[in-house]
Amino acid sequence: MTEDTSTRIDRAGSPSARRKRSTLLFLRDLLVIFVVAVLVSFMIKTFLIRSFFIPSASMEQTLVQDDRIIVNQLVPDLAPIEHGDVVVFKDPGGWLPAREDPSQPPLIAAVDWFLAFVGLSAPDSNDHLVKRVIGMPGDHVVCCNALGQMSVNGVPLDEPYVALPPGTTKVSELDFDVTVPDDSLWVMGDNRYNSKDSRYNGGTPLEGYVPVDNVVGRAFVVSWPISHWAWLDNYPSVFEGVDEAAG
């Protein structure tokens, strides 16, 4: 009886048994770390920041097609939107053409779903738009004056971020005179002659205005490719005096 017990103890304490237990403990810890990392990534993506890619050339040269940006999702719920912010927003209705999601092999679809779940992929980027906020609720936005400038609440804007065709000084080929409704925004692309923004969506149900509730967040950095890495400025000096003029 004593001999059998001793044999079992010896086997349990053998080097191979200890290695097996160590391996199992390591795998268990690795699984726990992986699950925690996935959950933390999901929480960050859901409540704090997430990634989008730029699907068009409408924000050049600030943002180039296929750039990836990081978006602060605390805007506008916990932090206010400001003039000049580059915002990502859901289609207010009629801005984007209808499209069908391309079919994918099951394995690729599963990987894409997981990457989207943890915020490393943004398959819904084509369902969102990226523009710069020019008009806030109540603002009077007019274009263009004799110098080709746009004005907000009577204050002419000198916009260094705007990309224009060679030899062009007028910041919009389309003249307009609008007053932004409550809880809405007037947004425009930096690539002014190649951006279907608020100016060109007057025939949609919301007449080109973007509800503040449609804003997913404010883009604050270009994260990829590394050669395009940059903080995104909202150029407060451009809009200096606009809020005071509104009062």
Automatic annotation (TrEMBL):
Keywords: Hydrolase, Membrane, Protease, Transmembrane, Transmembrane helix. Its EC number is 3.4.21.89. It comes from the Bacteria. InterPro entries: LexA/Signal_pep-like_sf, Pept_S26A_signal_pept_1, Pept_S26A_signal_pept_1_CS, Peptidase_S26. The chain crosses the membrane at residues 25-44. Gene3D superfamilies: Umud Fragment, subunit A. CDD domains: S26_SPase_I (cd06530). Its main location: membrane. The keyword Ribonucleoprotein does not apply. Belongs to the peptidase S26 family. This is Signal peptidase I. It comes from Agromyces neolithicus.
